[in-house]
Amino acid sequence: GQNIDQPTEMTATEGAIVQINCTYQTSGFNGLFWYQQHAGEAPTFLSYNVLDGLEEKGRFSSFLSRSKGYSYLLLKELQMKDSASYLCAVRPYGGRRALTFGSGTRLQVQP
Amino acid sequence: EAGVTQFPSHSVIEKGQTVTLRCDPISGHDNLYWYRRVMGKEIKFLLHFVKESKQDESGMPNNRFLAERTGGTYSTLKVQPAELEDSGVYFCASSQETRTYEQYFGPGTRLTVT
């Protein structure tokens, strides 16, 4: 079976750093994705991890530990426009490309 | 480069009626996916096309749902007859044949069945 957990809501202050965690238990693993989704809009791709370690892309970084079934998304220098839902998704092993999503973490950035 | 587009953006139909959703992927993307999100739940996979062929339809809930991708370009998802539990947001995504196969999503079609 597939199970992906992430916190439902988080609040942070403009200019601060926030870490959004994601744990997964899936029948296979071939990569973990983070997406950002503003209300009423399309999910947009943020990052991809398939090997253990940290991937940095500007203000956003994503970390993966396959042995622990754990990932986090780190957002630095938070801006008001970062208020959105952040979706963790896993691609299973094998030829399947289907993504299994968590329920998403709604981040509210306050002034 | 144009992104993934979906039509309509909203649809309100009565139980028992038929609705057809359309998705236009990014030009050149052979892979096309349908997902849906019902109220309060996570986004769930429905099916995956590679060009015009159904590669994986393991997420299709039942035979009231029919997806097509004639010619390997745009895709349609028909729900016939619609039931109340079909209400939700239907997302389409597309991807290229790359190392990561990251999927680019459309804005979704919000379907309300009354």
Report on the structure:
The complex is a heterodimer of chains A (111) and B (114). Chain A has no helices and eleven strands. By secondary structure, chain A is mainly β. Helices cover 0% and strands 54% of the residues of chain A. In chain A, the strands form two sheets. In chain A, strands 2, 4, 5, 9, 10 and 11 form a six-stranded mixed beta sheet that branches. With 114 residues, chain B is mostly beta strands. Chain B contains no helices and eleven strands. In chain B, strands 2, 4, 5, 6, 9, 10 and 11 form a seven-stranded mixed beta sheet that branches. A four-stranded antiparallel beta sheet of chain B has the order 1-3-8-7, with no helix packed on it. At the A-B interface, β5 and β10 of A face β4, β5 and β10 of B.
Q: Regions of chain A with pLDDT < 50 over 5+ consecutive residues? A: none
- Gyration radius from CA atoms of chain B, angstroms: 13 Å
The coarse silhouette of chain B is globular
* Pattern of helices and strands of chain B: EEEEEEEEEEE
Strand content bin of chain B: over 45%
Largest beta sheet of chain B, briefly?
Answer: 7 strands, mixed
Count of alpha and pi helical runs of chain B: 0
Kindly report the average pLDDT value of chain A.
93
Largest interface: A-B, 24 and 26 residues
The end-to-end span of chain A amounts to 41 Å
What's the count of strands of chain B? 11
Number of helices of chain A: 0
Largest sheet of chain A: 6 strands, mixed
Report the radius of gyration of chain A as a whole number of Å. 13 Å
The assigned structural class of chain A equals mainly beta
Helix content of chain B: under 10%
- Protein structure class of chain B: mainly beta
Assembly status: heterodimer
Distance between the termini of chain B: 37 Å
Q: What share of the residues of chain A does DSSP label as strand, in percent?
A: over 45%
Q: What is the helix content of chain A? A: under 10%
